[in-house]
Amino acid sequence: MNSTNRYLDQFCTDLLFQDKDTDKVFYGLDDIEGESEIIIVEGEMDKLSMEEVAFVIVSVPNGAPAQVSTKDLPPEDKASCIILATDGDLPGQALAEELARRLGKERCWRVKWPKSYEVNHFKDTNEVRYQCLYI
Question: Superkingdom of this entry's organism (predicted)?
Fold first, then answer.
């Protein structure tokens, strides 16, 4: 089992560490067991943000990795609708394409984040949530 540790250093830099030599699995994989519709996000904070509005969510390990292991993917025969809510940046878009290719493009849907006042589009779920709560 893998665990993630997050804290601030003396310069208030956000530090994120995961245990070495552990299997990297989707965060929340047990939450989607038996579900026909799931949402895949890119980070643990995105998963937690979407859970607050009662969605069934799973997050890829380590954000947008270079490649996703097939053993970590949701079971092929279970979910009929998979919503890919990865980040709107280039690594997130590449991750969404790779997940759709592996899971079957015919059952995958891609989230396009809404426009933001500060930038062209929001980056991810957590950014949308934060902006909506604190405006």
Answer: Eukaryota
Measured in whole angstroms, the distance separating CA 10 from the mean position of its chain's CA atoms is 29
Asked if 60 and 125 touch (Cβ cutoff 8 Å), the reply is no
CATH number assigned to the domain with residue range 26-133, chosen from the 4 options 3.30.1370.10, 3.40.50.300, 3.40.1360.10, 1.10.760.10: 3.40.1360.10
Name the token pair of 86: 């990865």
pLDDT digits (tens, 9 = 90+) for 47-56: 888 887 767 7
- Beta bridge partners, 7, equal 15
- Which of the four pLDDT bands, split at 50, 70 and 90, describes residue 134? low
- Reported pTM: 0.73
